Amino acid sequence: MSYILLTGSSGAIGKEIKKFLLRKKENILELDLLGHPSVDATNEKSVKEFFEIHKNKNIAKIINCIGIPDAIPLTAKTILDIDINYFKKMIDVNLNSIFLIIKECYRNNKGILNNIINISSIYSVVSPRLDLYNDKIKNPAYTASKHGLVGLTKHLAVILAKDNIKINCISPGGVKETINDQCFLDNYKKHIPLNDITTIKEIETSIQYLFSMNNITGQNIVIAGGYSII
């Protein structure tokens, strides 16, 4: 019996992917700060303990949904208002933790692990349009972490190819099921050539596609209706 490791399973996208995997009757292991046991993915000891607990499980695939959003204080007007510790934390959660999880999973499942998908963001390929956010500066650490995740994916694709492990990114635009602000959605759609918002179903279909392919690795699948091309 083999398992899919789903990280960040309590998040907005992670919990929907969990439902999808359960519908497919997949065997799932969850790694999450709110999980049982709770795992701090930025802490090497915590991650190693998780894999020690599950050392007899055969983890064949990973879906990394772990991450924190790009919120910063509403009062932030310039980069001078962004605390460096918050910047470091976002890089630690959104990027460093994913490397740590992949590393320890590889250590414990070499010869079994064969496919990894990192869920990134449209901001892995573009920077935010500030007019969509009432000219708030947003957090550059978020964009940096998502760009970094694509770079990490490409580099690991080369390193892990000798073990026949495929690793890719999926970078969705704004996801319809996770956005409650209709005004934002209407404005966002103005920047989308296909005039439609990404859905969870499209992410699920992309996961299924990447898991079924034997010759795709190091790629970033952008699902955003053309948002990134204009």
UniProtKB/TrEMBL annotation:
Family affiliation: Belongs to the short-chain dehydrogenases/reductases (SDR) family.
Protein name per UniProt: Uncharacterized protein
Alphabetically ordered keywords of this record: Oxidoreductase
SUPFAM superfamilies, per the entry: NAD(P)-binding Rossmann-fold domains
Keyword Repressor: no
Pfam family of the protein (one): adh_short_C2
InterPro entries cross-referenced by the UniProt entry: NAD(P)-bd_dom_sf (IPR036291), SDR_fam (IPR002347)
GO molecular function, one term: oxidoreductase activity, acting on the CH-OH group of donors, NAD or NADP as acceptor
Keyword Transmembrane helix: no
